[in-house]
Amino acid sequence: MPEIAPRLRDDVETLWNYHQLHHELRPADVGIGLGSHDLGVATCAAELYHRKLFPLIVFTGANAPTTVERFPRGEAVHYREHALALGVPDDVILIETEARNTGENITLTQKLLAHHDIRDAILITRPYQQRRAYATARKLWPEIDIRCASKPMPLDEYVNEIGDVERVITMLVGDTQRIRVYAERGFAVPQDVPPQVENAYERLVDAGYTSRLVH
């Protein structure tokens, strides 16, 4: 089982907790699963569908360098296949196969659903993508109510499922940087970054977890 080094644990947990919004879920018009390397997004979407939290699912995503090997037919396609295996009916799943970043996940899904009456949505993401996805959706699709969800699990269980400590930490660091940078660039609404989060981020950058930073 991969383990987080003790000297890093507090800072990694600080970022992990910051990015999860703990929204109280209520029924919505659609569940939107954002593509990534994490098949748990599709698992969570299927579970929420079976709980009758939405009647329609959109899976959105082409490929990124981190997903092309795992999902060669595209993120949305593989998510759909996984949801079907979990008992979700084919006729309630739409797929969007062109998006290559979170902004495109939102705008292309919005276009796909243009002829549906969408007033609220549940965004389903990796646990540490919730805050960034929410900030992006509030900027690009402000007219609907957005709540976020992820497959619930503690940090160590997630690291074990992904099987790569460095990937999880670098993604956490990258998403933390994007909260501020993307707001400054007009891609997302601003989010508060508490001092303890900023300090944890800086220490992990200093420790070398920089491969997912934007320049």
TrEMBL record:
The DUF218 domain covers 42-143
The record's GO CC annotations read:
plasma membrane
- State a single Pfam family of this protein: DUF218
CDD domains, A to Z:
YdcF-like (cd06259)
**For this UniProt entry, which residues form the secretion signal?**
none
Q: Which InterPro entries match?
A: Cell_Envelope_Assoc, DUF218, Rossmann-like_a/b/a_fold
What name goes with this protein?
DUF218 domain-containing protein
What species was this sequence derived from? Amycolatopsis bartoniae
